[in-house]
Fold this protein.
Amino acid sequence: MQLFLIIFSTIIIFATLIPLIKKEYWVFRIFEYPRLQKLVANLLCIVLWAVFPSSNTIINTVFLILLAINAIYIIYLILPFTRIWKKQVLTITKEINGNGISLMIANVYQDNTNYKGCLNEISKVNPDIVLLLETGLKWEMETKILDKDFPYTIKAPLDNTYGMLLYSKLPLEDGSVKFLVEDEIPSIHTIVVLPNEKRIQLYAVHPTPPVPTENPTSMERDKELLLIADLAKDSQIPVIVIGDLNDVAWSFTTKLFLKMSGLLDPRRGRGFFNTFNAHYPFFRFPLDHAFISVDLKLKKIKRLNNFNSDHFPMFISLQYEEKAKLQQEGFEPDADDIATANEKKQAV
């Protein structure tokens, strides 16, 4: 039992420390994902050391101290995504007619055939905009019925698990499908016109994840996100970035993206809203996101029901308020952040 505890404790501490190494190779980045899981395992390990203490008092004390420090550090990292933390995005206090926009983001899982379940979820929340990811030609055909209620569309169906379908009830302007980093990985760029004629720049993204079966490094993902960050920073109108970023809300890259873009994360101060993996409750992470500019406030954010995908859909409702930029602020990049971002954008 003692050998098991030593190995188990070492793995947990190692899994917490390895993401501090800012390398793009997947083995460094993948350990950023299971933050809550690491905390549970860490606390379990402390209990086991207490129940089955080592005959060697020094070993027992050293591991208990290390695990306690590790647990405190993980809790510190988790707190910004709990309700006891300050909200980065404020909740609206009064609805302003014509200033609202609601969006649903759903990674449908390309091989999933529960098209009806997807359409039912869309019908229940009745969003202004729907983004469906991992949509091939079959998904385009089976969701074509949405064209009736969502007359404005931008479609990039691909059978490589990176297809995108964007449906909108609100008018779209300057819509295009771009391939910023990889030839077969699209992103959708368009302007959404609100009922009050206010325009919002929308970016829909789905970069590749840093996993051995897809991409051994996070280089392409990081570069795409930071290129979108530049576009968001330079935009003269409010910005919303949505999609499956294949990155957790608390990762180094996501925070760097927020710093470089000036965008805000509605999750901060509200909860994890884990969307993947829908089939395994203990192994869930927040991979599907909506990041917004400082002149937008939150009306509602909600994780929706799964329809046989490996992702839960997300729903977010927002309101444009010009005065919001005086009440909210994002992260500011320092010189090291800017240098790191520039280096990542030049990679690949």
Summary: The chain has a mean pLDDT of 94.
